[in-house]
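Data deposition worksheet. Section B asks for the primary sequence of the deposited chain exactly as it was used as input, without tags or linkers unless they were present during the calculation. Section C holds the resulting structure in C-alpha cell form. Section D is free text for depositor observations; keep each observation to a single sentence. Incomplete worksheets are returned to the depositor.
Section A, Depositor: J.P.
Section B:
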Amino acid sequence: MSVKYNRVLIKVSGEALAGEDRFGVNKEMSVQVARQIKEVIDAGVQVGIVVGGGNFFRGRSSESIDRATADYMGMLATVMNALALQDTLLSIGCPAKVLTAIEIRDMAEGYSRRKALDYLNEGNVVIFGGGTGSPFFTTDTTAALRAAEIDADALLLAKNVDAVYSADPKKDPDAVRYENLSYMDIIDKDLKVMDLTAATLCKDNGIKIYVFALAQDGNLMRVIQGENVGTLIQ
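Section C:
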C-alpha cells in the first residue's frame, strides 16, 4: 500500500469525538475514529494525535473565572479525551500511549520529545494531552508545536467540515470551497482554519496542513495515500 506521509500529527477536535451528541464522547464516533487511526498504523504510518477539549469545556464562560484558569480547565478536558481515545484504541488492538504536558502521574506519563519519538518508532499511537502546559495557547498551537517537535510530514486537521471554505457552508450557500491554499491565504483571506500562532509555526517549519472531514469513514487513509479529499495548505 503506497502512502504519501510516513509520520503525521492529527489534530482531533473535541467536537469530532462528541459526534451528534455535541457533549462528551460519543461511543460510535470514538470507535470510528480509532478504526481509521488503526488502519493507518497498520499501513506503517507513525501517528501522533493532539485532542481538543471543546466537547467538555470551551473557553471562559464566566467573569468569575479568569482566562488562565479557564485555559487550565480546558487542558484537563483534553486529558479526558486523550484517555478516552487511548482506551478505545487499545480495545481494538491498537497500541497507544498518552503523554501530558501537565503532570497527572496516576493517569498518564509526562511529555518529553524523546519519549514521544521512542514510542512512535515502536509503533504506538502517541496522544498528546494537556495542551502546551501553559495558558493562552490553543490546541491548534499545541498541534503545530508537537508536529514540529516530532518532525511530522504533515499536520492533519480533522474537522466537522470536509474542507476549508470562504465562509460557513452551512450558513452561506455561496461559500467557496478551497482545494489548495498558502499559509498567507489563511491570514489574507481571514480564514478560520487555525489561529495565527499555529499557522506561523507551520509556515516557519515547512509543515503541510491538510484539512478534511473525519466523520466520513476511510477519509484518513485517503489523505495518507494522497487523495484530494479536503484542503491542502503549504
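Section D:
The two ends are 25 Å apart (CA to CA).
The first helix runs from residue 14 to 18.
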